[in-house]
Amino acid sequence: MKVEINELKLYVKIILTIGLLLTFVRLSKAQVLKQIGLNTHYGFIFAHSKDVENTRGSYPLGIALEYSKLKFDSSTYSLCRCYPRTGLSLMYFNYDNKVLGHSISSIYFLEPSFIINKKLLFTPRGGVGLSFLTHPYHPIHNPLNNSYSLPVSVLLQVGAGLHYKINQKLTLNLYANYLHISNGGIKDPNKGINWPTTSLGINYQLNHTVFKKQNFSSKKISTKFNRVEVGIYSSSKIVAVGDKQRYFVPGVFLGYFKQLNHLHSLGIVVDYHRDYSLQEKQKRNAKTLDFDFASAAIGHEFLMGKFRFWQQVGIYATKPQEWAFNWYHRWGLKYAITKNLNMGVSIKAHNQIAHFADLRLSYNFYKK
């Protein structure tokens, strides 16, 4: 089944919409610290396969301008036993490699912050956004770039840091980060850019609110729910580098999730999809048509109000005979349109190689 729509434009619109929704979450009843920050990054390219050996020995240098809000009201603290920080980061990187070039990225990030002492906070970080890249693969002008082939790709960030309070207005930050760029299998070549960095920066508080440590109160916790979730998703892929025709990748899933506390839930998910690009590839090579994938996965979710950041690790029960991978990992973000209806995006990958990115809708059936 062939699809001629431009999936990239659709992915960009959905991701931007989710980013805007995340940015304008209502904070009217919360005690909030508003900050701007400037961070410098220095790291190295992780050449994870022989296809990207030409990026080895590169040392990216970057700078990031950030705006963030840290909530510290008692209700929020009782809900997650932490002080969540959310924000936007505008980031520039020079990859120290003429094949890779430069990038400008916009990232939404989330940090559950934990108090170590009066001056020090520990802050794990997760972030997702879009990266605008200067040197995509081109068969004539840049044929050696196997890392990315689109000028716009998805950027993921994970890390952990320390915030040291210098005075009422200034905070010093130190982070260890891991960043990954991929187009989710929309277009090849797409081996991705992977680079760890160390970042050092400073934050300046914009408002005059004074941070106050909160005490846990079980009375302010909402009821825990378990749920069954059923959903559909859609993607598309090309068969070979240079192809313009895209092929449909539809899927369905069913999951059961048990809420452990007010920040985490665990679940089991069964998943089925068909990859029509693989069907076309097999036709071209005169091979048996076998393009069904069925799997079971263990999943985890971070519960942040209407938003859920989730991860899955799965094993295939059924897969094409020529498929070399036995397991996969998946990363996603979803937004609750209503109590029962969700929309979101995810990326499925095998080791460091993306299989595809998808758009999805799901429906929840709750049980206390």
Explain the overall architecture:
This protein folds into two domains: 175 residues, Porin (Beta Barrel), CATH 2.40.160; 146 residues, Porin (Beta Barrel). 9% of the residues lie in helices and 55% in strands. Strand 14 and strand 15 form a beta hairpin. It is built from three helices and 17 strands. It has an eight-stranded antiparallel β-barrel with strand order 10-11-12-13-14-15-16-17. It is flat and about 70 Å long. The N terminus is likely disordered.
Number of domains: 2
* Overall outline: flat
Percentage of β-strand residues: over 45%
Helix content: under 10%
Ranges where pLDDT stays below 50 over 5 or more residues in a row are 1-8, 19-29
- Number-wise, the strands total 17
| Helix/strand class | mainly beta
CATH C-level class of the largest domain = Mainly Beta
Amino- and carboxy-terminal Cα gap? 42 Å
The value of Rg in angstroms is: 22 Å
Mean pLDDT: 86
Count up the helices: 3
Strand order of the largest sheet: 10-11-12-13-14-15-16-17
- According to CATH, the fold-level topology of the largest domain is Porin
